[in-house]
Specification:
Elements lengths: L7 H13 L10 H11 L26 H15 L9 H15 L3 H4 L1 E4 L2 E4 L5 H4 L28 E4 L18 E7 L20 E7 L2 E5 L2
Parallel strand pairs: 4-5
Antiparallel strand pairs: 1-2, 3-4, 5-6
Length: 226
Amino acid sequence: MSRFDLHPAHIDGLVNAGLQFGLIGVLDDLTPVGQMLLQQHRPVRDAEQEDSEPPDYVATVTDRALHPIAVLCLLDCYEYQTSGTIGWPTSEAHAWTNTLRKTVLTRLPAEATTTVRHGAAYIPAYRILASYTETPWGITELDQVPELGDGVIEVPVVRKGLRAEILTGPFHSPNKGLSSRVRYVTILGVGEDRTLPAVARISEPSDDAPGVYLLFEYGRYVARPR
């Protein structure tokens, strides 16, 4: 992903999050913090500019309660677009965003911060939630940041099951079924109630072992994805 300069609205989102989560006092001016973040994001490009004035930026304040997971998306984008700048690891901006991240994470349920498998990678669970994925990568206006709403953060449960090998005979005819593309499945449940003993819930579904349910159909058990 190529680097691009963030819109001032993205900085607005961060400083409003700083106000919302207590990094900035309710009577403090948000503009100096935004200028600091913007100055690190758009570093000076030659020695003559080192003592230049702060960036031309004035904070816009919103009364909307930003969703904490959307704030994490703003942080991820800012840090990705800024981490290659000179002095970033020891900068005030790095310390400030790191503190904001730690503060926001303490407001999330434990399920949102656990690591889950997503495709071929393992990521924090909050990155697959709608409030994260629906936040643009680099906002251009504050209204693009989802609101907290009723304050309830729902995290989908990642079901675990029993990994099993698909046995095929010499006259295998998959007819575009699962066995035509994988050798293993992860059994998430059996029968109409689709439950599985806790002792068997040991593996998460994956690309090479997708989740299935064993349903009794036509006198035999058949593996169905749903």
